[in-house]
Amino acid sequence: MDTGAIGDLVDKLKAMQNDNVEDQDEYDDVDDDDEEEEHEPITLGFVDKPKNKWSLQRQYFPSKAGGVPAWLDPLNIPSRGSFVCDICGDPLQFLLQVYAPTEQETAFHRMLYVFMCPSMKCLLRDQHEQWKHHPEKPSRSVKVFRCQLQRVNPFYSQECPQYNESHKPAGCGAVLCDWCGTWKGDKLCSSCRQTRYCSEKHQAMSWRAGHKIACSQIQISSPVSGSNKSGATLLESHKGRGSKNLWPEFEITIEDESEYNRDMSEENKLSNSLILRNRTDDTMNSIFDSFQGDADKKSWASFQECIDKAPEQVLRYYRNTNAKPMWPLSSGRPSNADIPGCSYCNGPMCCEFQILPQLLYYFGVDNEVDSLDWASIVVYACEASCNASLPYKHEFAWVQIHSPSTAL
Ligand SMILES: [Zn+2]
Ligand SMILES: [Zn+2]
Ligand SMILES: [Zn+2]
Ligand SMILES: [Zn+2]
């Protein structure tokens, strides 16, 4: 076993928890430096294959992309209308989650989750919806949830978790959909009365993919009395039978952007340009040519220049700096008035992080005309991290796509 890797993880988590409980002084220092805010480094996120499967489980508070979410509150996960695409009605797919605790006692653990509908058609419709100011019923294909817990909570020990496979969180979670492994399995297969689904859509997909046969076998091998108590834990750890429909799973690792500001050697340039060649160069040049206005061209060029320092970044984390998101295009940017207030405390929302389209390259999403694509997704969250009674609070995402004029 790779003990070095475990040591790294422990250090990472300890550092995170120390930030919360001990280093108040450091926070004060940061405040003192406000005048130099422009130079405060922002944090970049990169994806990596997980060193081991268990380190992405919820008891280790992972930042991760693809696969299934690690639900911080594993019981009260979003259900009813909130887990589906408001446009096509299908369950949303897990994009990524970021562990971002604050110094507040009520946010000792704090996780932000981003889900989206994999349909580009829906994302183009979503584009129109986000411009409608504070609609009563937003109709979105991208949704963000915030979940936070106090240090003392029913699900996790107050101490730093031990990094080994046998460490289990207290309490088990909700039974999840057998197909997506993401959402609550509220619907029971009426034939075997064993298998659970989040939606009719996933039940139908599972049926076609083989549950039709498995269902009759389940009925024979386990009579109704065998509906097992351990089911919840068992299902919680499995990845969902339809997991090949999910995006591939990665760990998100972080680094300060300042690490990349020094000149790169030729060697680095070569290896880093991999992404540019495959995903960016060809398409990006044609995108660039398609821009009508000089403003877009200028903003695109400076965005690329900034990203090129670390072309493999998939995430830019801003919350603890006064930095603003880098918009790839000048058109389709929100003004302050376009960002709603927190729907729970009415307070302002602040820019928390930005998701770059490089993530789609790692997810292996095709580069076809109708493939899912975006220029930028910027996530805004309640500045106060308010503690409304709802376990998973809706936050806000602004999506910028490359050519909004060609929508639909
Ligand atoms: Zn949809
Ligand atoms: Zn499902
Ligand atoms: Zn069945
Ligand atoms: Zn709030």
Automatic annotation (TrEMBL):
One Gene Ontology cellular component: cytoplasm
SUPFAM superfamilies: HIT/MYND zinc finger-like (SSF144232)
Keyword Coiled coil belongs to the record: no
The protein's name in its UniProt record: MYND-type domain-containing protein
UniProt GO molecular function: zinc ion binding
Domain of life of the source: Eukaryota
Annotated Acidic residues bias: 20-39
Pfam family, one: PDCD2_C
Keywords: Metal-binding, Zinc, Zinc-finger
InterPro entries attached to this UniProt entry: PDCD2_C, Znf_MYND
Domain MYND-type: 177-215
PROSITE patterns: ZF_MYND_2
PANTHER family attached to this UniProt entry: PCDC2 PROGRAMMED CELL DEATH PROTEIN 2 -RELATED (PTHR12298), PROGRAMMED CELL DEATH PROTEIN 2 (PTHR12298:SF4)
UniProt-annotated stretches for the region Disordered: 15-40
